[in-house]
Design a protein that fits this description.
Elements: E1 9-12, E2 17-21, E3 24-28, E4 34-38, E5 48-52, E6 61-68, E7 73-81, E8 84-90, E9 102-104, E10 110-114, E11 117-121, E12 127-132, E13 141-145, E14 149-155, E15 161-164
Antiparallel strand pairs: 1-2, 2-3, 3-4, 5-6, 6-7, 7-8, 9-10, 10-11, 11-12, 13-14, 14-15
């Protein structure tokens, strides 16, 4: 890393703690002992970003990868057991996953939230639902909990706080 470029993301699974810096993922065990380093994004990949999917209830580390080829965005999840890649899935409906704020529940479902919408995908990238929000938030962040549940939070500068808890079908 070079000066001024240290902006890590953290992820946690049942077995690993990961520190993501740019193109590299540093893997630690739960006692913070260094295990390995992986690089899901090679130096030849242009405009590819890694986002961790945090969940202490899943056994392996899962990353959301976003690639922009100059025309469209592509989205993938890559699953790792330590530093070994176990699998990859692509999202079936990439148009509703354009906003890179993914979260994951302990069933492996992946949620995206953005301005005026939120979506849910299964672990294989198949869309379960995509819903519109009936108010105009400034920005949305979301947090998943156990058992097929997501919470969406938005705070507007004028003092309005929205907390949305959709049911399993996405209705709120």
């Amino acid at each position: 890393m070079y000066a001024g470029n240290f902006n890590p993301s953290l992820s946690i699974s049942a077995s690993n703690v990961n520190v993501i810096c740019s193109r590299d993922v540093y893997v630690f065990d739960m006692n913070i002992n260094y295990l390995n380093k992986i690089s899901p994004v090679s130096v030849n990949c242009v405009n590819k970003q890694i986002t961790p999917l945090n969940n202490p209830y899943v056994s392996n580390s899962i990353f959301h990868l976003r690639t922009f080829d100059g025309v469209s965005n592509n989205y993938f999840t890559e699953t790792y057991n330590g530093a070994n890649k176990l699998g990859m899935s692509a999202y079936a409906d990439q148009t509703s996953a354009y906003y890179p704020r993914p979260n994951m529940d302990d069933n492996g479902n992946i949620y995206f939230s953005g301005q005026n919408f939120y979506s849910k995908f299964d672990a294989f990238g198949n869309k379960i639902y995509s819903k519109s929000l009936f108010f105009s938030p400034f920005s949305i962040t979301c947090l998943t909990s156990k058992s097929d549940q997501v919470f969406l939070f938005d705070y507007e500068g004028v003092g309005n706080l929205y907390i949305v808890r959709p049911d399993a079908n996405g209705n709120y």
